[in-house]
Amino acid sequence: MMALSVSSVVKSLYFSGNHSRNHGPNHNHSLKHNKQHSFSVSASLNPSPYIPKSKPPQQQQLYQPFRPPPSPLPSQFATLDTAGRIEVLANRLGTWHEYAPLISSLIQDGFTPPSIEELTGISGVEQNRLVVAAQVRESLQQSNTDPDVLSAFDTSGAEILYEIRLLSASQRSAAARYIVDNKFDGKGAQNLARAMKDFPGRRGEKGWESFDYTLPGDCLSFMYYRQSREHKNPSDQRTSALEQALKVAVTEKAKNTVLEELKGEGEGNEEKGAEVGRGVLVPVVRLKYGEVAEATSVIVLPVCKAEKGEKEVMEAPFECRSEGEFGVVRAEKAWGRWVVLPRWEPVATVGRGGVVVSFVDARILPWKVNKYYKEEPILVVADRENTKVVADDGFYLAKVDGHDDLMVQRGSALKENGVKESLGMVVLVVRPPKDDIDDQLSDEDWN
């Protein structure tokens, strides 16, 4: 028996008689004329990664990650054999959403993304984008989305539809319409999807109730409105973000809220997370996964553990600044624990002396929590340049007699105990991210 190399067998099998790569006049020949060849391969040859592997015996089955079921193959491709499917993918025969399901069918047959890339030239990243985008498009069809909206994605819509994969079926339909009407590209679609996904988890933040969750434009407006608070007031960046928010807002209530902020009427009404006293509000925000990476400006602060007491807070670096063209962060002394936060308005006002204290249980906060609040670890941001206990309704980081750990105390309570100096005034409380409101990957993101 003549021994052949496995790579030659595969190439002969899939591309025998196929001149489609040579874009000549006979390029569009019928697939049915492909000749099928049989080969004898020596068992001594090393197996190739490009040939689908046979299933191992039942007792040797290993865990395999979840793969979503492939979309139904279009009728024109339903009868194609493996070589035919590979030819369609290699030459992009048809629209993207028609040939995308062929990738899933090859995966189901045992091919891997690298082997498909080798045979078709479609990278693993692009394979994933095509498969997921096709499934999103199929869900839009099932939701009775306007055919004119669907047809707008026929030419190069895979990148755009991929970005709205994390939305629910009803949200996808509304987002698709908004994307088409506003001629969004992939980046615009990504921002819109994040704004719509993120909106419910922002309940309780300033202005949230003024925006309509069912309208993509209002969700996008709230995202810009919230981002404006990462910048100093006044500043060009803050004004620009508010102008964007006003431009995309749909409801009159949302527009008026943004206009009030632009006019300065909303100044001083800090983002309300928990009411801590008459006339004084301490913002309580929940950090989102990826929020730091998306922030236009960030701040780096040293972190201390509450159980370590006041000594660690006193020893933490008092100043941290960026230097040079690359913004390299330099602290005045070495420190083991740091945190990076978006430059929200409360922390933007903190100059030298900013510090973060981590508490393992949010129940140390001396106010009545609302129904959305749960027992969880928190970070308390304090300003060490404001240590004097002045405001009765203010909150301060202090050590209380009889307790070794640090506590957050109301100014009036500290005054009653004769305490005039604290370790710093509390300016912000940060809650950890939550999986159930985050933009986690869905089952469709199989790559």
Question: Could you provide a short overview of the structure?
Answer:
The protein is of the alpha+beta class. Helix content is 35%, strand content 14%.
Q: Can you put this structure into words, describing what you see?
A:
It is built from 16 helices and 12 strands. The chain has helices spanning 6-15, 82-91, 96-108, 113-120, 124-142, 147-151, 158-163, 169-182, 186-198, 216-227, 236-248, 252-263, 291-294, 310-315, 345-348, 411-416; strands at residues 274-277, 280-282, 284-286, 298-305, 320-323, 328-331, 338-342, 354-359, 378-383, 395-399, 406-410, 424-431. It starts with 5 loop residues before the first helix and ends in a 16-residue tail after the last strand. Strands 3, 4, 7, 8, 9, 10, 11 and 12 form an 8-stranded mixed β-sheet that branches. The longest helix has 19 residues, at 124-142. It is 35% helix and 14% strand. 32% of the residues are buried. It has 447 residues and is an alpha+beta fold.
